[in-house]
Inverse folding.
């Protein structure tokens, strides 16, 4: 029952659709010359020096998410925006099943509409939005939550896209952050879920047009989220099996799994 | 903002895969000569005399769930077991989208593994089971919940299939019932969710081999669930739309929708 | 199991400490010449024409909340601010026990620090605040919740005291409203709880220095909250009693209570 | 923001009313010659070798819970049954305020009716019971929860007092265990809450008449609960303070606390 990462490094993969970057959007490349994923990965490496952090993109074979690679991924970060429909259903199923079996998933910003997130939520994940470069304040409403550790109250992000309620998500298992915007809107910007044996965290700050992933406090949240989402036991499939009467009496203490 | 059913009858559709019955399973036909759906529908009619209650089955064109019919369905009951994979994805998407837009859904027993339920939950919905005809007790843990109104504590079901934890569902928004079985297992047997603008209730008692849907208390739960799941406003799509600054100042009181 | 108010009018009592008014605070009396409670009560009367709505204040014997009166109160509204400590513990215990037995309680604004509310929450109920007459926007995050029915998204309150997070309350059973303020803060401004057999709703808009209780949308929320908090069964005490084996087999269907 | 126990041992205090033992109940002394607290403390010492584990009882001055001692207690265990009313309100307030400021609290069995627990819950905490020495099965419904780590599914306790629903507690923040009893009842036997900055865990197995605290799996749960409830930041009071406009802009990153 020991954590899988006790005897090896924490294995983090940062996935980015990498389309804004690939097609040469000047604003995006200004902030992220090598892609958002590289900045996010560098931040995670700095804060988790013992971890193995790598990246994957839509353009790679199987989007860089082969079954073999996912099998040893502890936490997957997901950034997508304009190419959600280009992600193959086979890879999405693979990601969803990995979460069910214990993999952590951290979904970023416009990933709210991604296939893996909407399939894990079961809702439309729709929201209100406005790209007006306005100030976002990220308030902590779970002060002792590990994802909020070391994070100021509020985080001040000078320029950001606005995401506003109603955000059509299931009731979160844990609400960590609420954001307000200069225009007056509010958004549940940091929400946590269990899905099967895996943990899912959605964090909304991070539009491609603003340097949000360079923000030290945002990086701290991402690093905290990676630690929080990491599995605590070996990955396993949940199945529906018949159980004869008194099946639980046959084993010794500690032998059955939930 | 008035409830859609204020000016017309509550419209309930009971869907059944109807496969055990169609292929002539003697035990099932013994309890339900015209199919489980007819017994459930009759019970709902009796308890909601003003409602319009009809049935639909897998074998009908589009499984009896055309877009036109679903558009005016307030609450859909769903019973499936051996033919989940035979339900067309197109119809499933239609059902899921109707829930997102406000339709109520009541999922019964082995429907835990149905396509609409697993898509709305985002988990595997796996569980433990044993068909040994043992006593199930259904305990209320939300005494004032409308779905538990008029229901004894516990409901005693003399013979039932056992469903046991771990039941791989998201944390319920509301837990109404917990069941215990003679063999010692426990199951979260009555759980409620919001998905989009619609309500979803899962209720596990009801195997095809036992006359559970003839049980007066079970019928009461189903009738309560229909009332609880009925939409309270007109169906509408949730979408992600841009909103200019101060969009909310233009309208008068009561004009914006969440 | 029928609702207690089916055969008689819904009985609402609006309690106000009535201290700002009694001591002649000019601003408060400007908005509420006869006290905030009279304005709230008038609004409830208008929206629930069939209900019996009365008021009670700190200055009355037993603060107007005798055992006899509370025994038939369906929903109690509570407004307090500077005199929380002047409310007798005996009356507070009476209120708390009435909630446990099924009475609804709607706590307003600075009532977050009242004895009944803090005793029902079990937390400090502390928060951040600033009285700067700034705009509050009240956003709905539970679009189909009955307390939000007919309410615009957002409610716009031109001038209000700011209440901000961290608001030290238990995780709400239901979150209905989130407020933002011109200064950038956020607040969980409409939160719902079950405590025993009773329902509790806290709604923060409503400082004594601003005419918030004259606001049509705020009045609508209060009326909705009264309907939501009203008990659905006869009041009863929850106790710890011994139960012999098979106690539940002796009665007929529907005879046991949770 | 580092955990307070990083630079010193985890400090656990096991409190027992110690009345059954003091008055010489033969059955209790048969299982626990030196009191239940000594067996619990020994188990915690064994599983947390680096921790400082001590005991306190009702009979000591200030019940062994002086302000000074509580100030450095990370996790307090609480066992009470027949002497809840003999615990001084002053000490209870001290315990509750310590929880609000970050101390962990683990409440055991008949402690459901203790003053600290009922004050933190805000409900009656009533339940059904029967002392018939029947088998209890403790099922995990949160398989990856740290309190369930290494625990079999189910834990089998051969003889126990029955505690049954309806258990009048607020909706738990996390449900970890459900128990069933040979007589058919069910109980939410492992439930977790946040109250202020502190964590509270209630675990029902453990009647004085049965050797439950000698059970290896129960001991594992208690040890897990101690680790889970331990504070992650320095203790601090939550207060309601005025905040001028833009107060959050003055500090540098990481300087404000929620």
């Amino acid at each position: 029952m020991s954590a899988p990462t006790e005897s090896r490094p924490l294995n983090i993969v940062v996935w980015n659709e990498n389309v804004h970057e690939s097609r040469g959007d000047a604003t995006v490349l200004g902030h992220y010359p090598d892609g958002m994923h590289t900045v996010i990965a560098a931040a995670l490496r700095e804060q988790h020096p013992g971890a193995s952090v790598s990246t994957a993109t839509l353009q790679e074979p199987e989007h860089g998410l082969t079954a073999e690679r996912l099998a040893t991924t502890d936490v997957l970060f997901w950034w997508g925006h304009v190419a959600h429909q280009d992600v193959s259903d086979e890879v999405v199923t693979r990601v969803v099943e990995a979460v069910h079996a214990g993999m952590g998933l951290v979904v970023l910003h416009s990933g709210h509409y991604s296939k893996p997130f909407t399939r894990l939520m079961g809702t439309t994940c729709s929201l209100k939005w406005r790209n007006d470069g306005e100030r976002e304040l990220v308030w902590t409403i779970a002060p002792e939550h590990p994802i909020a550790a070391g994070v100021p109250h509020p985080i001040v992000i000078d320029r950001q896209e606005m995401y506003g309620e109603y955000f059509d998500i299931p009731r979160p298992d844990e609400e960590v952050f609420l954001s307000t915007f200069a225009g007056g809107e509010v958004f549940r910007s940091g929400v946590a879920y269990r899905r099967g044996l895996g943990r899912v965290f959605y964090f909304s700050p991070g539009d491609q047009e603003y340097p949000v992933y360079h923000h030290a406090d945002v990086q701290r949240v991402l690093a905290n989220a990676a630690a929080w989402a990491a599995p605590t036991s070996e990955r396993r499939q949940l199945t529906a099996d018949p159980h004869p009467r008194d099946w639980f009496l046959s084993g010794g203490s500690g032998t059955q799994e939930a």
Chain A touches chain D through 35 residues (CB under 8 Å). The CA atoms of residues 192 and 217 of chain A lie 18 Å apart.
